[in-house]
Amino acid sequence: MCGIFGVYNNTESAKLTYLGLYAVQHRGQESGGIISSDGKKFHSKLGMGQISEIFAKDDLNGLKGSNAIGHVRYSTAGSTSLLNAQPLAIKFIKGNLAIAHNGNLCNAGSLKEKLEEEGSIFQTSSDSEVILHLIAKSKKKNIEEKIADALSNVTGAYSLLFLLDNKIIAARDPYGFRPLCIGKLKNSFVISSETCALDIIGAQYVRDVEPGEIISFYNKKMHSIKFSQNKKRAFCIFEYIYFARPDSKVFGKSVYSIRKNLGKQLAKESPADADYVISVPDSANVAAVGLAEQSKIPYQIGFIRNHYIGRTFIEPKQEIRDFGAKIKYNPVPETLKGKKIILVDDSIVRGTTSRKLIRMLKHAGVKKIHHRISSPPIKCPCFYGIDTPQKTELIAANKSVEEIRKYIGVDTLSYLSIDGLVKATGMKKEDFCLACFNNDYPVEPPKKKNNGKC
Ligand code: SF4
Question: How many domains does the chain divide into?
Fold first, then answer.
């Protein structure tokens, strides 16, 4: 869970990157940063918190040069500290090099051990640093070959941006777990986790970086190299369910349309009689609109969300999560009192937040609650960059749907089926990673964490 953004060949590269990072802020709020290159020197500013907290006006003026990359971080590997904030920069034989990474490597632990035995000294606990070491150690000649060589050793999920003195290089893992797209802004190229960030700076979407592709931006052009012939795709379907912004196109398709289809499909699979459809804002809003449309039941605003705190799912510590749930949503009694409602949420992870929300609704006078979830039960942890907890903490891994219904206290509870989920995307099942629902991991999970595997 991270967002990356880069601008090649624009005198305002850092300022545009700053705006782009705002647009992908939902992908990570713990730390962030921008590194720019003026052709000889790197300029950087990194900090903890959100983009608005990290950068002051003077910081942006100091980020000189026509190439820049940026990152917003949510830690799924490595601790929460400024040391692990990205982009991460080093100096090596070819000059300066910085990396911004979205995803999680599966074999970073064993690679790190091996590199340390060979004398490498690591500055951070993030898995992304392993890639820098592998590049620096590669015997290949040019930087694109060195990156391809390094990436042939790592497994897992990665969408990457590299900044060099006079280049930006983008790369995506052979399965394409995480999105990465390219846009054009006059003579500049823009690379982003999501297309919503292209829209914000007026860039035109060109295409996605393909799985197993390295794209190098230099001499004012883009140059493509395939570093893997893998044909199997494993796009993270959770990007459509929850993670990506609905105004983005991800894996070539509109997140809004697909998320709305999830709601429609859910209504077909599990109809219910109610006065209103309401959503858990904001991530379930679009699915609720689809469900309401399909059911011909009016959509109403049942919760007001306080936007001045982070997403509960995105906060790593349990205490913060508990605190967050209480101050984040407030029910609207005028909509809810004496009503039968269909409450739509995108997922149930631990069940603790759902339970609190249901209590609030009952307190507000709701008569009957049909809870509908626009994804299948999450039964297995994610090892590819989405922060789901260990199996022991996943409610659906440990309780039946009926037990969950009782635990959270609703009248009826239904999840979307796996087939219904895939159908709503209009794509093939083979295109997706569905591991958190069906235990079918496309890439072997990290050895140390295997005890968490289903
Ligand atoms: S395990 Fe789930 S969350 Fe993780 S990449 Fe696969 S579909 Fe996405």
Answer: 2
CB 76 within 8 Å of CB 385: yes
Q: Is the CB of 441 under 6 A from ligand 1?
A: no
State whether the beta carbon of 175 lies less than 6 angstroms from ligand 1: no
Q: Is residue 11 a contact partner of residue 67, using CB atoms and an 8 Å limit?
A: no
Categorize the per-residue pLDDT at 357 as very low, low, confident or very high, splitting at 50, 70 and 90: very high
Residue recorded with tokens 């893998």? 230
Structural domain of 97: 2-231
d(CA 330, CA 356): 11
Whether the full predicted model's pTM is greater than 0.85, yes or no, is: yes
The CATH number covering residue 375 comes to 3.40.50.2020
Q: Which atom of ligand 1 is nearest to the CA of 434?
A: 7
Is residue 2 annotated as a catalytic residue, yes or no?
yes
Residue with the smallest CA separation from ligand 1 atom 6 is: 433
In a domain, 237, yes or no: no
Residue appearing with tokens 């979307």: 416
pLDDT tens digit sequence for 267-308: 999 999 999 999 999 999 999 999 999 999 999 999 999 887
Of 215, 231, 247, the last residue of a domain is 231
Residue of 2, 236, 380, 436 marked active site: 2
Q: What are phi and psi of 86, to 5 degrees?
A: -120, 165
175-202 tens-digit pLDDT: 999 999 999 999 999 999 999 999 999 9
